[in-house]
Amino acid sequence: MKVLMYSVSGKKYIGLCVKEGTLNFSLAWKIYSAENPNHSHIELLSNLDLLEAGLFSGKLFTDVYMHLKKLSQLEKCLEKREFTFEPPISGSIKILALARNYRAHARELGNEPIEEPIIFTKTSNTILPHNGDIIYPEKITRVDHEIELGVIIGKKLKYADEEDAKKAIAGYTIVNDVTARDLQKADISKQWPWLRSKNFDTFLPMGPYIVPKEFIKDPNNLNLQLDVNGKKRQMGNTSCMINSIPSVISYISGFLSLSPGDVICTGTPEGVAPIKAGDTINATIDEIGTLSNSVISEK
Ligand code: MG
After folding, report:
1. Domain housing 200
2. For residue 261, how far is its CA from the centre of ligand 1 (angstroms)?
3. For the chain, which end, N or C, has fewer CB atoms within 10 Å of the first or last residue's CB respectively?
4. Residue 107 has pLDDT above 90, yes or no
């Protein structure tokens, strides 16, 4: 089961991919919660609502699905209209990203890999849904793609050890940490933070789905592949991360508190390269799916 956000005529819904199709989870939830006094007062309009209510779990999605089947209401909740993908998470969240978390990628940009995590932030204006257009900024001469596994936080965390960090993961998604490489290099050479180069509008395509952690066999062994116009650019496996996912979450929680809905971008494998207006990018991670975006010029 995979979870998404989608819209029809501008109205947003939570979706759940099941073998019969895409379930309108917002409607399914109404039917389920009406008969469940524990949940009857909770309104769920987004994945962030689900996460903040502590309800984002493989078990709950399975329970709702089974309940609808039992009541013969599944068909009624299947989405039959054409829909647009929305970002799987948005709103008041933090986005923390890792630099150089794969040795071969650190080396391809002329950096020696180091063991301590290097963390930077991406701002929420960067988030772009599946099928959205990446806007190539007018004055920038090199923009690169970076496929990464995105981790969605499901609980409040402060000073967490790795065991608690692991328990706080809600699910996984695909992100493309788009980067204005020339601007980043210029800022690094001046010993400035590289915030500017990472935070142009649309520089974080994300989705199409969040897969609840219960449905990912082993997050430390997922293949990642990114193609541009059908040609392979990046290939890697999450087993090659320098810092493991729980260790990174634990590390971050040592200096800021993490909240439900926060996203950790876990670093990119080697093969980063420039994109240009007109390109189509497909970023695929095992067990999650393919995130597709095109590039358009700002001009
Ligand atoms: Mg990156």
Report:
1. 95-297
2. 19
3. C
4. no
